[in-house]
Amino acid sequence: MRRTRWQKLARSLEKPWRHRARSVGHGFKRLFAPTLTAAEWALYRRHPRQAASSAPRLSITLTSYAPRFGTLALTLQSLLNQSAVADEVVLWVHAPELRLLPESVTRLQKYGLRIVPCERDLRVYLKSIPALRSEPNTVWVTADDDVRYPRDWLASLLAGHRADPAAVICRRAHLMKFDAAGRPLPYRSWAKQTHFTGPDAPLFVTGVGGVLYPPGCLHADATDEQRFASLSPNADDIWLNWMLRLQGTRVRRVGDNAEPVTWLSSQRVTLFKSNARGSNNDECLVRMTEAYGFCCFRALDSRSSVLPVIGLGELEPVQSAVDALLA
Asked: Which of 7, 96, 122, 205 is 20 to 30 A (C-alpha) from 142?
């Protein structure tokens, strides 16, 4: 373990100074995130806000499990303390773990949290599939249980939704890359945390940043437990990206695409190593391509048919220049 830490330190020192400064800044954000969240929550409790009536209904959905219950209240407080307030925040918990929820979580029910026990443990899908099944006409916004969400997080997603009500809106996305035949290249070769905002590009939505799903935006297979369990069992992002593209749904990214601020102790148990750093994502990509094909990821607008020709990596500097002119 000690050797691994020194190796990580050595790799960090090899990075350009800008990257090192960004890493240090992000580390300080993670260090002080609990204190900032507690302070904001104290202010929220003095001045509670009421959710504006909306049609359709707007709800935030997430799941958690016992190893992360210690920091779960902090995430929930950041979701309940948004400048734009959802109708409710729904926490899905595998029924046997319900009794393990700390009082710091259960007492949040009087502030707009709803805790729902689930008999079946759908693992990473527990935050999305039960919600989509139970209330298909609700605008669902997914969140992760190990992230501090800034107060403008939901407001930015809603602004994107109002501008394009039929599109899936996300705060964080990757830009997929393809080979000469148009097949997806390995996950690690994609342009991570792209600044391209879409919709005329193969943006790959990442759930950690939060995703807004309007009613009817996903393919009919989206809630088919047998299929997602066999094709993409531990990679819900891959499954949901395929489902929205098969439905012909546009994707738009909003916000600054910043690195999520996670709680320091929450990363001891994570799928990141097996998915992003390991081969699990690529294995899922292969199975999804075999089952559903890959043409659904080609640009939804005919103007975008040139994307594979000019190379997706060349688009980001162009988009950055356009954004600078419009700012």
From this structure: 96
Angle at alpha carbon of residue 284, lines to 278 and 287, rounded to 5°: 145
**Over the range 284-301, which residues count as b (16 or more CB within 10 Å of their CB) and which as e?**
bbebbeeebebebbebbe
**Are the CB atoms for 297 and 245 separated by under 8 Å?**
yes
Q: What is the DSSP string of 155-212?
A: HHHHHHHHHSTTSEEES-EEE--B-TTSPBPPGGGSBTT-----SSS-EEE-GGG-EE
Q: What is the pLDDT of residues 97-153, one digit of tens each?
A: 999 999 999 999 999 999 999 999 999 999 999 999 999 999 999 999 999 999 999
| Alpha-carbon distances of 199 from 167, 169, 237, 238, 312, rounded to whole Å | 9, 10, 18, 18, 14
Instruction: State the alpha helices, DSSP H only, in 57-180.
Output: 69-80, 103-106, 129-134, 153-163
Mean pLDDT for 232-240 is 95
C-alpha distances in Å from residue 231, one per residue of 35, 297, 323: 41, 17, 38
> What is the pLDDT averaged over residues 255-282?
67
Going by their DSSP bridges, the two strands 113-118 and 147-148 should be labelled as unpaired
